[in-house]
Design brief:
There is one protein chain. By secondary structure, the chain is mainly beta. 7% of the residues lie in helices and 43% in strands. Strands 1, 2, 3, 4, 5 and 26 form a six-stranded antiparallel beta sheet that branches. A four-stranded antiparallel beta sheet has the order 6-7-8-9, with no helix packed on it. The longest helix is centred in the first third of the chain and has 16 residues. The radius of gyration is 20 Å and the shape is globular. The chain starts with a helix and ends with a strand. 46% of the residues are buried.
Length: 376
């Protein structure tokens, strides 16, 4: 394989794992008088959002990523923040905001609701592969202290993505990619990516699966869903395994439409169904520029118009639950397991678990990839 092809695969894996965003990180900016933002400073309660979701009878809070344009020294900058929406009264509170040159791409709140883990890259932190080095940091929701590095990387080529907590709060699962240590398949070289977990209290990371990303746990914590990229055609394959990575099984999709670009899988409340984001039907027949030039597919639903789908864990015909054709689609179940919150990159919506009564909660999140966590 040529160097050009290897570089393309580096881009593809980075797109798959990061949602096609520029990685950056977070430190408070409220002390900088030259910087203005519509997102609000950490700890600041913003104007309430009108509560238009009473028909859903939803409760709890949503923790999500948002962005706004700001200005610093006569330059326009993008400011990334973490906000909390109280569904009882529509109050929005900013609990953390990144400085210019930093980025938050993904977050997951711990089961106890006291802290979160996020993809975080401090401003000015560049890896040797020419991209920002995405690492995992923890942050308390009570704003008692700034982000703390969870897992020091062994090299500058190691990047961490898509963290998610186990239901008991003991483990954090995440995707790990290293562009400096490609794995080998017959006649070709691709970036090395794997699925790992770390014991949150003991701090011991462990690799669970090779060529796997997008980890999500079942509600009982017994099983794991994830995605793998076919190294030949770049298509996504959906898998389940035991929580420790053993006994992996591919979830075979069938029917008249089988998405080849999927991501962000997650289990239904009864653990018998998997939700996932997948490219809409119209996209499946439209070659991308990568297809035309290199003959392969970018395997990420975060970069094409997508909808939420479901399929039994035993496999079968996927069911389309939404018809919104949105970018950066990510789903989070409510604590009562009756509703789903959707982060779309441009807005946050909620619906019943069967896809009915889709309602907009937050009209503008800034148009960047991200995620949402629903907590009591």
């Amino acid at each position: 394989m040529t160097r050009t092809s290897l570089l393309l695969w580096e881009i593809i894996i980075a797109v798959v794992l990061s949602g096609c965003s520029i990685d950056i990180s977070q430190q408070g900016i409220s002390g900088d008088p030259s910087l203005t933002s519509q997102a609000g400073s950490p700890g600041q309660s913003l104007k309430n959002i009108p509560v238009v979701w009473n028909n859903l009878n939803i409760k709890g809070k949503l923790v999500y990523i948002t962005s706004r344009f700001g200005s610093q020294q006569n330059a326009i900058v993008t400011l990334i923040a973490i906000q909390v929406l109280d569904l009882a009264n529509g109050n929005v509170k900013t609990i953390f905001e990144a400085p210019p040159g930093a980025w938050i791409d993904f977050l997951s709140v711990a089961p106890d609701g006291k802290r979160l883990v996020m993809e975080y890259v401090p401003a000015g932190n560049d890896s040797s592969v020419g991209t920002k080095q995405t690492l995992l940091y923890t942050l308390p929701l009570d704003e008692s202290h700034p982000p703390e590095l969870l897992l020091p990387p062994p090299t500058s080529g190691d990047l961490y993505y898509q963290p998610t907590w186990s239901p008991d709060g003991k483990y954090i699962y995440y995707s790990h990619v290293n562009f400096q240590a490609p794995y080998i398949v017959p006649g070709q070289k691709f970036p090395d990516y794997e699925l790992s977990r770390i014991d949150y209290l003991q701090g011991q990371p462990k690799k669970l699966l090779d060529q796997a990303f997008w980890p999500r746990l079942s509600t009982d914590g017994a099983h794991l869903s994830y995605v793998s990229v076919d190294p030949v055609d770049g298509s996504n394959r959906l898998f389940t395994a035991n929580a420790d990575g053993t006994d992996p099984h591919q979830v075979i999709l069938s029917g008249s439409y089988v998405p080849i670009i999927i991501d962000a899988p997650g289990f239904s409340p009864d653990d018998q169904t998997i939700y996932f984001s997948a490219a809409t039907r119209i996209q499946s027949s439209t070659p991308s520029w990568v297809d035309k030039v290199f003959g392969i597919t970018i395997a990420s639903a975060h970069v094409v118009p997508s909808d939420l789908w479901s399929v039994p864990i035993t496999g079968g015909t996927p069911t389309q639950l939404t018809h919104i054709a949105s970018f950066s689609l990510f789903a989070s179940l409510s604590p009562d397991d009756k509703h789903v919150a959707l982060y779309t990159g441009g807005e946050i919506l909620a619906m019943n678990s069967d896809g009915s009564e889709l309602t907009t909660l937050v009209k503008d999140t800034g148009g960047i990839p991200g995620s949402v966590s629903w907590i009591p």
